[in-house]
Design a protein that fits this description.
Blueprint: H1 8-31, H2 33-58
Length: 82
């Protein structure tokens, strides 16, 4: 089993990256709002909606009789030509 904990230095680095990204977006929205919106904000909104819809589509067919079984929480298409 791998270690899933993040060390302090890794966490600090991730916090620094996220903070600099948000500051860069804020500066971009202040200086060039339209290109920044279409480059960063709109794709984030579309991707969030698409991933939420994909997650809902995976878990829509949960078996109500065995809802705690991991094999019946999603649907799988195996060996099918799509």
């Amino acid at each position: 089993m791998r270690n899933e904990w993040v060390s302090f230095s890794q966490g600090f680095f991730l916090l620094l990256i996220h903070t600099s990204y948000l500051v860069g977006m804020a500066v971009g929205m202040y200086t060039y709002p339209i290109p920044t919106f279409y480059t960063f904000v709109a794709p984030w909104i579309v991707a969030t909606f698409a991933m939420s819809l994909g997650n809902f589509g995976q878990h829509i067919f949960v078996d109500p009789e065995k809802h705690d079984c991991n094999y019946r929480l999603t649907y799988n298409i195996m060996s099918e030509k799509i």
